[in-house]
Design brief:
Rossmann fold; three-stranded antiparallel β-sheet; globular; seven-stranded parallel β-sheet; 243 residues
Amino acid sequence: MRIYRATDYDDMSRKAANIISAQVIMKPNCVLGLATGSSPLGTYKQLIDWYNKGDLDFSEVKSVNLDEYKGLSRDNDQSYYYFMYNNFFKHVNINLENTNVPNGTEPDSDKECARYNKIIEDLGGVDLQLLGLGFNGHIGFNEPDEAFEKMTHCVDLQPSTIEANKRFFEKIEDVPKQAYTMGIKTIMQARKILLVVSGEGKAETLYQALYGPITPHVPGSILQLHPDVNIVADEAALSKCPR
């Protein structure tokens, strides 16, 4: 486990983008596992900036996203495909046919999860998986539970997650109650993991994930068992962790 201490969110974003850009440069046809939300947004902006300067080429990169709300179509402005397209995909030269996000409009959960697992398998797995950390310790949408979910599955979102995401919707009733997400096994099979965390509000959760017991009640704690985990976090998020 490597911990990179950043001074603030912008510094965290640059450090995280450096790790991703190194992956792309070393293996131009790599498979990137991508995440959504406010935590990686600055990282995407930095990657776009370097692409515009001619420093990066995404033409051979393939991507698989962690998750998608069940029930939302790609053109819904709160879907994760919409987020990825508008905040990253359309700004770089990645082939959209090489980008993969779970299909939120597929009502058959078993069918969609099997399809997405097959996509990841056919790609040969993920070279680098980008993650954020939820306030309740979730990674992807793997919520605190009694056991670690293995592969892609449909999850019932916990009230704390719905509450955290309501700021993106007109009212809390509009927040989807389910999502498709890569499972813990899928995430842990990535050859490299990059976790980005920012803000004092996640300091206790980050401490529990990195230094607490490995338990499905804090899903992010499973990362302690991965052989190549890189944590990039700002001073506020690391305030409860030992130096």
